[in-house]
Each structure stands twice: as structure tokens, then as C-alpha cells.
Amino acid sequence: MKILRDYQFVDPADRGATAAIGNFDGVHIGHQSVISLARSAAPDAPLGVLTFEPHPRAFFAPDAPPFRLMSREARASRLEKLGVEVLCELNFNAALAALAPQEFARRVIADGFGLKHVIVGSDFCFGKGRAGTAADLVQFGRQMDFGVTVAPLVSQAETTVSSTAIRRALSDGAPRDAAAMLGHWHRIEGPVIGGEQRGRELGYPTANMSIDGLHPPAFGVYAVLVDVLSGPHAGSYHGVASMGVRPMFGENRPNLETFIFDFQGDLYGTPLSVGLVEYLRPEAKFDGLDALITQMDADSVRTRDILAAL
Hints:
This protein is α/β, with parallel strands linked by helices. The protein has two domains: 2-153, Rossmann fold (3-Layer(aba) Sandwich), CATH 3.40.50.620; 185-308, Riboflavin kinase-like (Elongation Factor Tu (Ef-tu), domain 3). Helices cover 31% and strands 27% of the residues. It is built from ten helices and 16 strands. The strands form four sheets. A six-stranded parallel β-sheet has the order 1-4-3-2-5-8, with helices on both faces. Strands 11-16-13-14-15-12 form a six-stranded antiparallel β-sheet. Strands 6-7 form a two-stranded antiparallel sheet. Helix 5 (101-112) packs across helix 6 (134-144) and helix 7 (163-171) packs antiparallel against helix 8. The longest helix has 20 residues, at 289-308. The protein is elongated and about 70 Å long. The model has no long low-confidence stretch (mean pLDDT 94).
């Protein structure tokens, strides 16, 4: 997959794609539907996605709590798995935010990336002050010679599928509900970082990962699926993970600690993808390490049963 970041310097060979436009946070089933429409709108054109980095919400409210479902790297990886060939990952800055809707359509879509056809959701807004609508884009497309398809919103069980609804499910400790909207398990991806090695002392060595910049799911213990993405231990595993601040050991920065079943090896620096399957229980402070280990044993037994049934 080719990644383009500047609409002002596009090689002629990279023009002419059909692209779905949006933020694609989570790449949920609604996003996948839009990408599918892009594929069918012009089967002979390269399949593209036009998105923004940083997320506009982060640009306009940099001090707001973390809300992203996935990092830019995880998003790119997921889009590539869906067959996207050209990722137009626009640098969202003050200059881009200041473009009026018609200027955005002309400078970015028509003259910049030279897109042949674009697909947007019916709630799509764009341009300065989010003044442009999907209907406006249809009109601009007629004027500027690119096609526009407006995709209906996807609903599930009377709930409109959205990144907001998925965040709500994760905050409620309902990863299976989130997965139903995502079309895949919600995953935390990133390298294994150094920890304080308390898990090793307890007989439960863990792979620690940062969740900085991401929407934090409900703190607690989860049954998880683990993919080691590279290195000598690359492969898929089962495990149990703790998301949160580890209240047994004082105040700590939130992170994800995963104990991988039946695994031995060094994973420091190795990229992992940890899929949240089921929420087992909230974080707790125990009356001593023996009580904690007893609970961890019970969590592991329950997790093995849950994952064996998948």
C-alpha cells in the first residue's frame, strides 16, 4: 500500500484512484461498507482511502481526553488488509482546516490527488467549520469532474454503527458488542515496553504495552487473543490481560499487561496486537499477594475456557 501525505506533490502515476473519505477510526463495519462501495464504484481504478492525521478532533481540542480507537499505524495496517492500495493520509493542520468546502474539493480531491470517484457517508461534513455536506460534495463533483457516491449509515440492533458507539461499548466493559460493530476484535497494538517485572515474581510474567493516546476501555481483566507480529516468536496465542493502573501497587500510568499462556521467550521491543474478547472483572486491591495470585489463577482458568469456545 502506498501512503501519500501531501496533496500538492502527487506523482501523476498515483492519480486516478477511487477513494473512500473519512477518519476511519476503528475501521468498523460502516467504514468497511464505504470501502466496499469504493471498490465497486470503479473496479479498474486503484482502491484508495482519504483520511486525516492527526484526527481533526485532536487538532481542535488537543487537551481533550484520549479518544482514538487505534493508532495511525494500526489504521494503515487494517486498511491494507482490506485491500486498500493508496492511502492519502492528509496532514491536518491550520491551512487545511481553513479551506472552504469548495476549495477542499478542488485543491485536494480534484487537482491534488486527482481522484476519479469518492465515497462518503451520508453524515459527512468537510471544509472550514464543517460547512460542507455530502450533498455539496455531489454538486462539486459534477462541476469538477469526479464522481460521488453517498453511502447510507450502517445500523445494528437499532444502533447506528459509529466510532462513538464503539467507544461507549468499550467503556462499558462490553468488548463483544464493540467487536460486533467493528467486524473484528478491538485490538491494542504496539511494542512491548519495559515494566517493573512484578508479574514475573508472581509467576505471571507479562508483556506490557502503552495505551497513551488511545481511548481507554474499562479498566479490569480481559480474556485476550494475542498476535506476536514479528520476530522469532511470531504467531497467535491466547492470554489474559489487565488493563488499568494496577491498584495493588500504588498510583501508576494506565497500560495493558498481558500474560500469554504457555509462552517462553523475550518480547521486549516486539510489536504485539492484543484483541479484547471478554471482560472478566474490574481492577481490585487485594489483601496481600497470595490473594492476588489466587485470583489470577482463577482468571486464567476462566479465560482458557472462554477462548477455547471461540
